[in-house]
Amino acid sequence: MRVSDTNPMVTWQNGQGCIADQLHQAGNECFQRTQQRPMLIVVILPDNANDIYMAVKHFGDVGVATQCMKSSRLSFRASLQCCYFMECRINVKLGSINTIPDPQSVSILTDPWNPTIVMGADVIHPAPGSEGRPSFTTLVRNSATSSHFTT
Predict the structure, then answer these.
(1) Chain segment 78-88, per-residue pLDDT in tens
(2) pLDDT confidence of 13, banded at 50, 70, 90?
(3) Which long-range contacts does 92-101 make (Cβ < 8 Å, 24+ apart)?
(4) Phi/psi zone of residue 129: left (φ > 0), alpha (ψ -120 to 50 degrees), beta?
(5) Which pairing describes strands 147-150 and 65-70: parallel, antiparallel, or unpaired?
(6) Against a cut of 0.70, is the pTM above it?
Protein backbone atom coordinates (compact mmCIF):
# COMPACT_ATOMS: atom_id res chain seq x y z
CA MET A 1 0.00 0.00 0.00
CA ARG A 2 1.31 3.41 -0.90
CA VAL A 3 0.70 6.44 1.29
CA SER A 4 0.94 9.62 -0.74
CA ASP A 5 0.22 12.16 2.00
CA THR A 6 3.59 13.11 3.46
CA ASN A 7 2.00 15.64 5.79
CA PRO A 8 -0.90 13.89 7.59
CA MET A 9 -3.26 15.87 9.74
CA VAL A 10 -2.38 15.73 13.44
CA THR A 11 -4.62 17.06 16.19
CA TRP A 12 -4.55 16.90 19.97
CA GLN A 13 -7.77 16.51 21.92
CA ASN A 14 -8.82 16.46 25.55
CA GLY A 15 -9.61 12.90 26.64
CA GLN A 16 -12.29 14.27 28.96
CA GLY A 17 -14.38 15.57 26.05
CA CYS A 18 -16.91 13.77 23.87
CA ILE A 19 -14.68 11.38 21.90
CA ALA A 20 -17.22 10.76 19.11
CA ASP A 21 -17.62 14.51 18.53
CA GLN A 22 -13.85 15.00 18.50
CA LEU A 23 -13.34 12.19 15.97
CA HIS A 24 -16.17 13.50 13.81
CA GLN A 25 -14.62 16.98 13.89
CA ALA A 26 -11.20 15.56 12.93
CA GLY A 27 -12.81 13.72 10.01
CA ASN A 28 -14.52 16.94 8.86
CA GLU A 29 -11.22 18.85 9.05
CA CYS A 30 -9.55 16.14 6.99
CA PHE A 31 -12.33 16.33 4.40
CA GLN A 32 -12.06 20.12 4.18
CA ARG A 33 -8.31 19.85 3.64
CA THR A 34 -8.26 16.96 1.13
CA GLN A 35 -11.83 16.73 -0.24
CA GLN A 36 -11.74 13.05 0.78
CA ARG A 37 -12.98 11.15 3.82
CA PRO A 38 -10.13 9.91 5.99
CA MET A 39 -9.23 6.26 5.42
CA LEU A 40 -7.82 5.78 8.91
CA ILE A 41 -7.79 7.61 12.21
CA VAL A 42 -4.88 6.72 14.50
CA VAL A 43 -5.42 7.54 18.17
CA ILE A 44 -2.52 7.64 20.61
CA LEU A 45 -3.85 6.77 24.06
CA PRO A 46 -2.42 7.20 27.54
CA ASP A 47 -2.17 4.07 29.65
CA ASN A 48 -5.39 3.08 31.43
CA ALA A 49 -7.66 4.81 28.91
CA ASN A 50 -10.15 1.97 28.44
CA ASP A 51 -13.13 4.33 28.21
CA ILE A 52 -11.49 6.34 25.41
CA TYR A 53 -10.49 3.14 23.62
CA MET A 54 -14.07 1.85 23.69
CA ALA A 55 -15.42 5.18 22.40
CA VAL A 56 -12.89 5.20 19.54
CA LYS A 57 -13.70 1.61 18.58
CA HIS A 58 -17.44 2.33 18.67
CA PHE A 59 -16.87 5.32 16.37
CA GLY A 60 -14.81 3.12 14.05
CA ASP A 61 -17.65 0.61 13.78
CA VAL A 62 -19.75 3.12 11.86
CA GLY A 63 -17.37 4.28 9.16
CA VAL A 64 -13.71 5.21 9.32
CA ALA A 65 -11.16 2.57 10.31
CA THR A 66 -9.40 3.32 13.59
CA GLN A 67 -6.17 2.16 15.16
CA CYS A 68 -5.38 2.82 18.81
CA MET A 69 -1.85 2.78 20.17
CA LYS A 70 -0.68 3.25 23.74
CA SER A 71 1.75 6.12 24.11
CA SER A 72 4.01 3.93 26.26
CA ARG A 73 4.55 1.64 23.23
CA LEU A 74 5.69 4.50 21.01
CA SER A 75 8.91 5.48 22.73
CA PHE A 76 12.12 5.77 20.76
CA ARG A 77 12.94 2.30 22.06
CA ALA A 78 9.80 0.75 20.58
CA SER A 79 10.63 -2.74 19.44
CA LEU A 80 10.61 -3.63 15.77
CA GLN A 81 8.15 -6.40 16.61
CA CYS A 82 5.68 -3.86 18.05
CA CYS A 83 6.05 -1.60 15.00
CA TYR A 84 5.60 -4.54 12.62
CA PHE A 85 2.49 -5.70 14.50
CA MET A 86 0.91 -2.24 14.20
CA GLU A 87 1.88 -1.99 10.54
CA CYS A 88 0.20 -5.35 9.81
CA ARG A 89 -2.98 -4.33 11.64
CA ILE A 90 -3.20 -1.01 9.80
CA ASN A 91 -2.43 -2.69 6.47
CA VAL A 92 -5.39 -5.07 6.82
CA LYS A 93 -7.73 -2.31 8.00
CA LEU A 94 -6.94 -0.38 4.83
CA GLY A 95 -7.82 -3.36 2.64
CA SER A 96 -4.44 -4.92 1.91
CA ILE A 97 -3.23 -8.47 2.45
CA ASN A 98 -0.35 -9.27 4.78
CA THR A 99 0.41 -12.84 3.72
CA ILE A 100 -0.14 -14.85 0.57
CA PRO A 101 0.97 -18.47 0.88
CA ASP A 102 3.04 -20.10 -1.83
CA PRO A 103 0.55 -22.23 -3.85
CA GLN A 104 2.95 -25.21 -3.81
CA SER A 105 3.13 -25.18 -0.02
CA VAL A 106 -0.66 -25.27 0.33
CA SER A 107 -1.57 -27.47 -2.63
CA ILE A 108 -3.93 -29.51 -0.45
CA LEU A 109 -6.15 -26.43 -0.14
CA THR A 110 -6.68 -26.25 -3.88
CA ASP A 111 -7.07 -29.98 -4.59
CA PRO A 112 -10.66 -30.45 -5.88
CA TRP A 113 -10.55 -34.16 -4.93
CA ASN A 114 -9.65 -33.41 -1.33
CA PRO A 115 -12.03 -30.73 0.04
CA THR A 116 -10.44 -28.84 2.91
CA ILE A 117 -11.76 -26.36 5.39
CA VAL A 118 -9.56 -23.78 7.10
CA MET A 119 -10.69 -22.43 10.46
CA GLY A 120 -9.42 -19.68 12.71
CA ALA A 121 -10.54 -18.59 16.13
CA ASP A 122 -9.76 -15.70 18.42
CA VAL A 123 -10.82 -14.48 21.84
CA ILE A 124 -10.71 -10.83 22.83
CA HIS A 125 -10.77 -10.10 26.54
CA PRO A 126 -11.40 -6.68 28.09
CA ALA A 127 -8.38 -4.81 29.40
CA PRO A 128 -7.28 -5.54 32.96
CA GLY A 129 -9.35 -3.55 35.41
CA SER A 130 -12.37 -3.31 33.12
CA GLU A 131 -15.49 -4.30 34.97
CA GLY A 132 -18.72 -5.49 33.42
CA ARG A 133 -17.26 -5.88 29.93
CA PRO A 134 -17.62 -9.22 28.17
CA SER A 135 -15.07 -11.24 26.26
CA PHE A 136 -15.79 -11.84 22.57
CA THR A 137 -15.01 -14.93 20.56
CA THR A 138 -14.80 -15.17 16.81
CA LEU A 139 -14.69 -18.15 14.50
CA VAL A 140 -13.85 -17.86 10.81
CA ARG A 141 -14.01 -20.67 8.31
CA ASN A 142 -13.24 -20.83 4.66
CA SER A 143 -13.71 -23.67 2.22
CA ALA A 144 -13.53 -23.94 -1.54
CA THR A 145 -17.25 -23.20 -1.89
CA SER A 146 -18.01 -20.70 0.87
CA SER A 147 -16.73 -18.46 3.65
CA HIS A 148 -18.48 -17.83 6.96
CA PHE A 149 -17.81 -15.42 9.81
CA THR A 150 -19.41 -15.95 13.20
CA THR A 151 -19.17 -13.89 16.38
Answers:
(1) 678 888 888 88
(2) confident
(3) 93/40, 93/65, 93/67, 94/1, 94/39, 94/40, 94/65, 95/1, 96/1
(4) left
(5) unpaired
(6) no
